[in-house]
């Protein structure tokens, strides 16, 4: 069987890069913990430790379970998109790919998550320009859902949320632009005219952009919205519960809004996983709500560990399985 040249390039992504990626993860975790330690030191170690010690094992388990709801809902949404695109995947394959991609979620700009395209190519034989729309629509869906949740929070939270509506509008505009095939094609074409280089890359980008219209069917959009909303709201609800357990009684929608706002703000910083930006935004917003530092710092640390770092742990666990099954899939295709 003659392999597609694009697929060949994808398959040649060397596994040795996993070492540097894990090193980056480790360094980021150290920086995150160092930052939290510095903030905790500013408020007093005893107060911070006392707040964390108030949490029971059952409470931590519930926080992790709510985060898992988010990842499962978004994995199912990924499967809906994949099937709409025409990929012959089972729900188990989609789950494996989606969770495995979290192992690369703290790479700059989350570009490491494109490893999912590699697995798809190995198991289906599809070229990257045919599967790339999945990554784009997945990001756009998250932006759209988070923007709508934030808009709801601004409307329903007691006392309102200053600045939240503006962020919601920006996220919605970006999500809309990212799913308009004609707009993306125009941008890609302009890029080629300005550079005059890499014609094959720009051609593949145009092919990928034209596939975006497949996701605009009302039933697909409704399913994507429902799954994304359920997932992200689950994590926001976890943050609300956590604050209550730590003695900071904040309105449900305000807590959800703060969580989503901080997550979006972290993403806008461009740092891997939003590390630094999300924590700073979350602590600042909690402070504005009158939450003392001895509560906001440990609450931020706990929710980030049970969301971002929990996702990273799941990804690292699923990554070897995704690699193993994708290699088998590639070998099966080549032996046909």
Plain-language structure description:
By secondary structure, the protein is mostly helical. The protein has one domain. It contains 14 helices and no strands. Helix 2 (18-43) runs antiparallel to helix 14 (293-334) and helix 7 runs antiparallel to helix 8 (164-178). The radius of gyration is 21 Å and the shape is globular. It starts with a helix and ends with a helix.
Q: Beta-strand level of the residues, as a percent range? A: under 5%
Radius of gyration: 21 Å
Order of helix and strand elements from N to C terminus? HHHHHHHHHHHHHH
Mean pLDDT: 78
What is the strand tally?
0
Spans of 5+ residues with little confidence (pLDDT < 50)?
1-17
* Dominant shape: globular
Domains (count): 1
Structural class: mainly alpha
Helix content: over 70%
Q: Count every helix, treating DSSP H or I runs of 4 or more residues as helices.
A: 14
For the terminal residues, how far apart are their CA atoms? 7 Å
Sheet bearing the most strands, described?
none
Transmembrane segments: 52-73, 140-159, 213-234, 301-322
Subcellular location: Cell membrane
InterPro entries: L-PG_synthase/AglD
Pfam families: LPG_synthase_TM
Features:
336 residues; mainly alpha; 14 helices; 78% helix; globular; disordered N terminus
Topology:
Layout: H1 5-11, H2 18-43, H3 45-53, H4 57-85, H5 91-101, H6 115-124, H7 128-156, H8 164-178, H9 181-195, H10 199-210, H11 218-245, H12 252-269, H13 277-288, H14 293-334
Précis, in short:
With 336 residues, the protein is mainly α. It has helices at residues 5-11, 18-43, 45-53, 57-85, 91-101, 115-124, 128-156, 164-178, 181-195, 199-210, 218-245, 252-269, 277-288, 293-334.
């Amino acid at each position: 069987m003659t392999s597609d040249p694009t697929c060949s390039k994808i398959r040649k992504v060397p596994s040795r890069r996993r070492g540097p990626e894990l090193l980056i993860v480790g360094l980021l975790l150290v920086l995150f913990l160092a930052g939290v330690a510095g903030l905790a030191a500013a408020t007093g170690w005893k107060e911070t430790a006392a707040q964390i010690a108030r949490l029971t094992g059952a409470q931590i388990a519930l926080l992790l379970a709510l985060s898992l709801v988010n990842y499962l809902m978004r994995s199912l949404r990924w499967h809906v998109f994949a099937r709409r695109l025409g990929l012959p995947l089972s729900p188990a394959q989609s789950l494996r790919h989606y969770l495995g991609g979290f192992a690369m979620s703290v790479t700059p700009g989350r570009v490491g998550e494109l490893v999912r395209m590699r697995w798809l190519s190995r198991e289906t034989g599809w070229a990257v320009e045919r599967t790339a729309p999945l990554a784009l629509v997945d990001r756009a869906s998250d932006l759209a859902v988070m923007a709508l949740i934030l808009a709801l929070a601004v409307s329903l939270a007691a006392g309102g949320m200053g600045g939240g509506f503006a962020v919601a509008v920006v996220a919605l505009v970006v999500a809309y632009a990212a799913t308009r095939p004609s707009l993306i094609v125009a941008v890609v074409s302009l890029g080629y005219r300005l550079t005059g280089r890499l014609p094959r890359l720009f051609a593949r980008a145009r092919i990928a952009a034209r596939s975006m219209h497949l996701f605009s069917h009302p039933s697909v959009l409704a399913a994507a919205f429902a799954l994304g909303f359920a997932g992200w709201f689950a994590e926001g609800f976890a943050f609300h519960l956590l604050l209550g357990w730590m003695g900071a009684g904040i309105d449900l929608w305000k807590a959800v809004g703060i969580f989503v706002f901080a997550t979006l703000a972290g993403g806008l910083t461009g740092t891997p996983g939003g590390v630094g930006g999300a924590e700073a935004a979350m602590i600042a917003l909690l402070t504005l709500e009158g939450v003392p530092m001895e509560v906001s710092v440990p609450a931020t640390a706990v929710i980030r560990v049970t969301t971002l770092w929990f996702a990273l742990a799941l990804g690292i666990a699923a990554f070897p399985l995704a690699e193993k099954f994708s290699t088998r899939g590639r070998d099966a295709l080549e032996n046909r």
